[in-house]
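Record copied across here:
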Amino acid sequence: MTTQATAVFGEVLFDCFVDGPQVLGGAPFNVAWHLQAFGVQTDFISRLGNDTLSEHILASMTAWGMNTALVQRDAQYPTGKVTINLQQGEPSYAILDQQAYDFIDEECLKHTRQYGFIYHGSLALRHQCADQAFTALLHQQQHAKVFFDVNLRSPWWQKQQLHTWLKRADWLKVNKDEFYLLAPERTNFAVMMKRVMEYYQLEGLLVTLGEHGAVALTQATDLVEVTPARVCQIVDTVGAGDAFAAVVLLGLQQGWSVNVLMTRAQDFAQAIVQQRGAIVHDRQFYQVFLKDWGLSSSVSSISIAN
């Protein structure tokens, strides 16, 4: 097994809560933030406007130790924003069009290093420019595993596009509602998962079930189910799925069994929903998990052998 970095492609933006606070967000950024805290070598690929918000993002990334070399700047389009309204802890999103992350430029990605994993969502591929950049990146990375974290936000996705992205994925993470959009027919849940796995030729399929936990199916294992270990006080659920995805990626790179990585991903996601927003700025928050998992903060990313 060889040490390789992870690429995270997609949006970084500000989650603007209707009750006042603005916090850093965007599913790919959240995943990259967590991976950095866990010591994984991570290249975050995105695009920002030339504005005050972009300076705040770059300063936060630098302070956190994240690589900013592949974060592009745009003179025309603004740094992304999303308005979030919480009702009983559940978020609804108002996502603006024509944001800087829609225009990630493939010309700036011609000399990236080789990656073990490439993570992406669906929102940042809604426009042709960023989609072309991502496709060009994949052509350069013939041996990287693609981890697709579906984040369907109406009206910013189309069925045919989604099908194309799924065909390029090795690992797929969806929530329950998204899964039912992919399943060919309603039947036993495990059978449905197996059919989706086979149709898209996936190595692994993860379905998050909110307060009921998550399930996973891989080519090498039967169905694995996890549920929250305890009842907790939920502040908001923004970023819970991103937290889950980050630990799954970490676990895949570290060679954890599916049972172990699912349990640890569920535990971390449960801790995140007790925080406001999707990321945590306190390094000690992450150190607790690293210690429990028997990892040091300097753990490096390891690719799965092809």
